[in-house]
Write a structure and sequence with these properties.
13 helices, 0% strand
């Protein structure tokens, strides 16, 4: 009974996190509509995320793991790299919201899993079976269709996909917990963000309510990461993999219906093969994991909290 309850809580936490990540574009849209430039919003998100994450780390661990990370130059160097990648990812997403190009950002998050597959193939020397290769080829066709039909290279979507794909690779190779990892990453970025805010903005530029919303962006970032971490501890990786497509689906919904953009409808047809590729790949992975567990080849896979990646958007 307790195991079922834990799984149920995990599903609730995972669905909640991905739904919020999917609709967080509306939150950022409120800020950009109030005249907050993307770079300023990014800088505030970095600073406030550090403050909230630091508070969480001190409450949950007393700061011991954080101190250990700062004493290991190799981990610091890896997290410096991942901090740059997540900053690019956040900036690309915020810019997409500000310029009404959220459709491209959604495409980027849809193909993140497949980018990760290619990185695993090239960097980690992982192998793909025939069905996985078919999925990669179908997704590649979908992205190519979007490029040709849309008449331009979807730079925002590609920036989102590759920045987060490489971010996941770096974090996978760096055994640091999600909250501690994000704390170190934002600590590395905060001096640059603080200098930018001090030089490029005026304290009186925005009203009190806008500054409150900017501060809450940090709380949202840290809070959703905690929900994701809880889900990752309770759920199988295959289940978590299916849930992750909730966020870009919601982003596409926002782009087309809630915050209407002017998409190239022929280009949007490219999403169909991408969805098909993801469905094939995820279904094959889930069935294979189930067969291996039943045959006793491997134990039930669960996401270790030390390798959980910060998402986002």
């Amino acid at each position: 009974m307790s195991r079922f309850s834990d799984k149920t809580i995990g599903v609730i936490c995972g669905v909640t996190a991905y739904l919020c990540w999917g609709f967080v574009a509306l939150y950022f849209a409120v800020l950009t509509d109030r005249g907050v430039p993307p770079m300023v919003l990014l800088a505030h998100r970095v600073v406030w995320s550090l403050l909230f994450c630091l508070a969480l780390v001190l409450i949950l661990t007393g700061g011991r793991e954080l101190v250990r990370v700062f004493r290991q130059p190799r981990k610091l160097a890896a997290l410096a790299t991942s901090s740059l990648l997540i900053a690019i990812n956040w900036l690309a997403f915020i810019y997409a919201v500000d310029t009404h190009q959220l459709t491209e950002a959604a495409m980027g998050y849809f193909i993140v899993p497949l980018v990760s597959v290619v990185l695993g193939l090239v960097v980690l020397r992982e192998r793909l079976n025939a069905i996985q290769w078919v999925s990669v080829c179908i997704a590649t066709f979908g992205v190519s269709w979007i490029v040709v039909a849309g008449g331009k290279v979807p730079w925002i979507g590609l920036a989102v996909a590759f920045s987060f794909g490489f971010y996941g690779l770096v974090r996978k190779l760096t055994p640091v917990g999600p909250i501690v990892g994000l704390t170190v990453e934002t600590a590395i970025l905060t001096p640059v963000a603080a200098v930018y805010l001090g030089v490029m903005t005026d304290v009186a530029t925005f009203g009190a309510s806008t500054y409150l919303l900017l501060a809450l962006a940090g709380a949202i970032t840290a809070g959703l990461l905690m929900l994701y971490g809880r889900a990752a501890q309770a759920l199988q990786l295959s289940t978590l993999g299916f849930l992750q497509y909730i966020a870009p689906t919601c982003q596409l919904f926002v782009a087309l219906l809630v915050r209407p953009e002017a998409p190239h409808w022929w280009a949007l047809a490219g999403f169909v093969p991408i969805w098909v590729a993801l469905l094939i790949f995820s279904t094959e992975s889930g069935l294979r994991s189930r067969r291996e567990r039943r045959s006793g080849i491997i134990p039930t896979l669960r996401a270790d909290s030390s390798t959980v990646r910060a998402c986002d958007s």
